[in-house]
């Protein structure tokens, strides 16, 4: 794999994660716990899908094969997606969604800060813009973590259960391959290990306020960097891509 191909795949990783997570959040539209939160979650979903759109446009230009952002979003299959395993997990309940989003937001918050210094000027500019949105997202989900964790007995139990299940997908957030490391040397990508301690500090601060404990099981899932996913992604893509694949020439 040459550097341009590695660069393309790295941008896809960022875009796919935002696209999939944005779609997951959009599933809450009309089903939020109350109107204000319904609107807030929908707006966060729109932010993430907007970030995905910009990143996919950048990826399409890097690839140089005439594909558009829509082609990349709707015409790739499951094994061609590189989103994190965490982002594709289903919405079991509101607590599950909040934990999934918080862990992702905390990662993106520190990642985007580093990406602002990327030698890829387009990526750096997108990181500056996206970082402003992620700052709000993290503030929002961290507040919900504290609210649920310090709320009723049931809300705390649901939050802890979600935490125990989703923690097993957090190592995959930091997954890198050989091509990624070459991009780090070129000043384009971020070495995920350099943000892990900052991410963990953010996570532990909120954990303490939410009265959560680390799960006893330390098993961690992996594979997304090689296009290996959980059973959930295939169903998500089938729903997300159905209309475009059915009417590929449709214009809106």
How does this structure look, described?
The protein is an all-alpha fold and 252 residues long. The protein has nine helices and no strands. The chain has a single domain (3-246), classed as Ferritin, core subunit, four-helix bundle (Ferritin), CATH 1.20.1260.10. It has helices at 3-26, 35-63, 69-74, 94-115, 121-149, 153-166, 178-185, 193-210, 231-246. Helix 4 (94-115) crosses helix 6 and helix 5 packs parallel to helix 8.
What letter string, H or E per element, gives the SSE order? HHHHHHHHH
What is the overall shape?
Answer: globular
CATH architecture: Up-down Bundle
How many DSSP H or I helices? 9
Tell me the number of structural domains.
1
Averaged pLDDT: 95
For CATH, the homologous superfamily is named as Ferritin, core subunit, four-helix bundle
The CATH class assignment is Mainly Alpha
Q: What is the strand tally?
A: 0
Please give the radius of gyration in angstroms.
Answer: 18 Å
CATH topology annotation: Ferritin
Measured between the Cα atoms of the first and last residue, the distance is: 36 Å
The biggest sheet amounts to: none
| Helix vs. strand class | mainly alpha
Share of helical residues: 55-70%
What fraction of residues sit in β-strands? under 5%
Low-confidence stretches: none
